Amino acid sequence: MQSSPADPFRDYDPGPYFCELATERTGDGGARDVVRGRIGAIGLDALRARAAAAENDLINLGITFTVYSEASAIDRILPFDCIPRILTAAEWRTLEAGVQQRVAALNLFLHDIYHRRAILRDGVVPADLVLGNSNYRPEMEAFPVRFGTYVHICGTDIVRDAEGRFLVLEDNARTPSGVSYVVENRHLMSRTFPDLMAGVRLRPVDDYGRRLLEAMSEIAPEGVDNPQVVLLSPGIYNSAYFEHVFLAREMGVPLVEGADLVVEDERVWMRTTGGRRPVHTIYRRIGDDFLDPTVFRPDSLLGVPGLIGAWRRGNVTLANAVGTGVADDKAVYAYMPRIIKYYLDQEAILPNVETHICREQAGLAYTLANLDNLVVKPVGESGGYGITIGPRATRAEIAAARAALMADPSNWISQPMIGLSVAPTLTDTGIRPRHLDLRPFAVTGKTTWVLPGGLSRVALREGSLVVNSSQGGGSKDTWVLMDEGEAP
């Protein structure tokens, strides 16, 4: 990058990594240079002052998540970085098509394993990997679901490697979180950095609530013309409660807890001050185990007794469906290219990161022989917990990972350490490169729509590859540029 002595980018060096702002690529219409120039005109001091104002907005608006530890629960904001990540229209077309393809395959896979199990009989995916999975729900066998859709809201975690290729890191098919930050980050940018955005033609993100409500209405029981949609939350102590409030508000639907609902005559009713009202679609943000104490955990106080029976009778629809956790298991993830090929007869538009399955002898042997060079992950964890990054681990950490692998190989996968792409990020020492990923959100009713952009999570610590909010990561506004001539 060429820069003047006063340019905030004068010391910026992305090193060997693909940089989301600095690396040359076609199709951006000069937007990256425009943004870089405007940041230079603002200057570091003013940039920091405005960034601080933006974070104060997050606090004042109560836009927080909860970090749980053994000793306490701490409410934090998700740190916001004011330098946007920019995706061209062509890049977005690839990402959008790849996510839609993946969601289609996930839904076909889930329908199959809970019905005919053809993919298991044909040996494409090992039967014991699915049927022995802790997230497999026998209660869903032969269970009818509207349009064969199990994953109505999906978050796909995507990274870009040093060559600029997009790779899927994992699927989130249960209750993916973070979409509220996508919308709120855009609002923050509009309020705090209007001069940075002026004249840059971006795909909007404000219609997520409308799109989500449309999908939730489409999947309502057949014959219901004006369905009542609700969002079911575990309550204020849940780490993502702000998002539950946000999404209910964006959809214009009631936010309810288990105690607000009752099942009578295999129908779901909502208690209101004006009496009971029927409920037709429930966007649930409660885990499978806690949904219905008559079917799953009998000690659950979060769910609704009789809910699964009402669903089975076709009187209500749950989104996402119960049992989708099989599809975002990290071991099943390794088979996704084969799953896509099996059901769609297509190659994966977005390839997986190379993955070694430690439950398989060859995968375990390779992982044990190359621990120093691999990232080892537990298949059932999320949030960046339990990961060992071999090239950065101590001898003690490598030894602990080896012992864990030997004790329970089926609980682990390994992957090469990807040199994640970087983006300019405002730090205490100036604008510096920080690694990031992307979580686009797909909403499926009769068809699948993907929110333009998604949540760009950024690892704020220098050199860190862990972007999760629970591990100290932040987020950026993700800009998807319009095609030339495309109407806003």
UniProtKB/TrEMBL annotation:
Gene3D superfamilies, A to Z: 3.30.1490.270, 3.40.50.11290
Domain Circularly permuted ATP-grasp type: 84-459
InterPro entries (UniProt xref): ATP-dep_Glu-Cys_Ligase-2, CP_ATPgrasp_2, UCP005522
SUPFAM superfamilies named in the record: Glutathione synthetase ATP-binding domain-like
Source organism superkingdom: Bacteria
Name of protein: Circularly permuted type 2 ATP-grasp protein
Organism name: Limobrevibacterium gyesilva
